[in-house]
Predict the structure.
Amino acid sequence: MMHILETERLILRPPELADAARIQALADDPDVAGMLTPMPFPYTLESAESWIRLGHAEIESGESYPFVIIRKADNLLIGAVEIGNEVRHHRGEMGYWLGKAYWGQGYVTEAARRVVQFGFEVVGLHRIFATHYAHNPASGRVMQKIGMKYEGTLRGHIVKWDKPVDLLMYAILRDEWHLSQSPSPAS
């Protein structure tokens, strides 16, 4: 089933083949691709089309839910966010990226918060986790802002562009998320 999610400033929807050129243009940047393990560089139109096709298959199987991030103000695609679904363990890994021109404006925090809600309320996950490269602390701040807790560092866990990279892991459990959504008692 295809889902469309909404926030105050964003629409999150499954990617379409018509998005491929825009995705390629944003992702074909070493500063963007350099922060993501699975993203190749250069990022070609074929890479974008392949990601879109794979995403549709994963949505159909319930294995993963990729979304493109669309800014409502101008209907512009600015990035992507995805949440996996490891059914056996009721957990999902979340990942995200934005085109460089859109960094530092709160868009990824807004999108990630909405996808966490989707993961718990619709997908039925118990745990959502995410990792970021140690040299990308801004991504860790996003995870903290949406209520995730730091769980540890996976030293030299990934090799990106022939260099070992440390990953910092964050996670949130469904009960923690529900508590964070409850209104505070009046003082």
